[in-house]
Amino acid sequence: MYRVWLKNEISGEIQLTLKAIFEPESIAVIGASATPGKWGYTILKNMLGNGFPGPVYPVNPKATDILEQTCYPSVLDIPGPVDLAVIVVPISHALAVTEECGQKGIKGIIMVTAGFREVSDEGKQLEEQLMGIVDRYGMRLIGPNTLGVVNAHAGMNASIISKLPVKGGISFITQSGTLGLALADWTMEMGIGLNIVVSTGNKANVDDVDLLEYLADDKQTDVIAMYIEGINHGREFMELAKGISKPILAVKAGRTRSGSKAVFSHTGSLAGSDDVYSAAFKQAGIIRIENIDDLFDSALALSVQPAPAGNRVGIISNGGGASIIASDTCERLGLAIPGLEPGTRASIKELVPKFASYSNPVDTAGLASYETYNGIVKHMLRDPNIDALIVIYVHTVMWDSRIPANAIVDIHRGRCLKPVITCWLGGAGTEAGIDILKAGGLPNYPVPERAVKALASLVKHHGFLKKVKE
After folding, report:
1. Does domain 12-142 have CATH number 3.40.50.720?
2. Could you tell me if 193 and 168 are in contact, meaning their C-beta atoms sit under 8 angstroms apart?
3. Hey, which of 3, 31, 254, 341 would disulfide with 263, CB 3.0 to 4.6 Å?
């Protein structure tokens, strides 16, 4: 896994001010509701039901208790200190309750309430007034128009997703709240571990620069994944990104004219020139990803695999077609398929049928025994011409998918120093094997193209770090 390395030390001020949002010890839900289906009910229920260790205070002047918790008419009536306020009130009350948060000494706000800059000029004026209150009291605010924040390691679910994601090293910044939270649900199905998920909303106060700076120094974050529609302080963001060694992956929306129009109507962001973004990302070492599948495929590989020394890839498969697809994709993405050392070829020849291919890519001609996969992987990892390995198993009724999976995991447990990416191909027949791979810390992909794209992101990131350090 990658650890942070910065040209300049991260500002302690950012960590201190955003800690109230991402690592609060106490939370007030302002606009809490006893009515299922309302946002104030859902967010309070999620805060109470996902293991947050500190006190959670419902605030609503029309209730005395909600979900068996004492309800307070105002944050000013809460007897103890409050670090974070999640505000879920009509826009007509948003400024007043924010003022009360400032008077209470609250330092962090998640403003779920919408209807600000993203909808009208009048909303823009209200947002400016809101920021005046926030600045006057020295508070930090996510939003407005956010769908919330999640910190899996802290047990905090201040959002509308029902369950916390599996704990992991990927933190996700998303300008689209619905997309981001839907993806958090999707990662749970895929078994992908997350740390922090933040829906940025309008970015009126806390923006991409603040979040990137915070996550760069966050010990639980190994990879930063982003869905971006527009960046408020582009030059500062790119300069900051350039000094961070943690992988930063970004899907940039609004690439086309129609997409740019949709971005503006969604959050009021100006999407900017796509070519400018691509050039800036490349210079800053941000890996631009084309789609959401590839974003999390790459993030998963970067969060659990070691850095490759170069771009030379070894491929193993029990079926020729899958290895050909992998080889074609490697070449298209700038990855090399080198020849193997004579000694490596001789050792592999002893493990496969006479008519099998023991060059790179290695085709076992249908064999998927423990000895075959375990032996070939060991020999290829020792080969000085190989920097990373893609291991493919194409399911047939002749073999149990768990057998080659155990063969690879047993090697990986031995602290493998080269990346190993797997592709168990074949639907329901591969599920048991895939479970073994996941439990063993190996990222698995359903088709060869996705496996190669994930590996390409590993290679790109390591190449950028080498260039910067030189």
Report:
1. yes
2. yes
3. 254
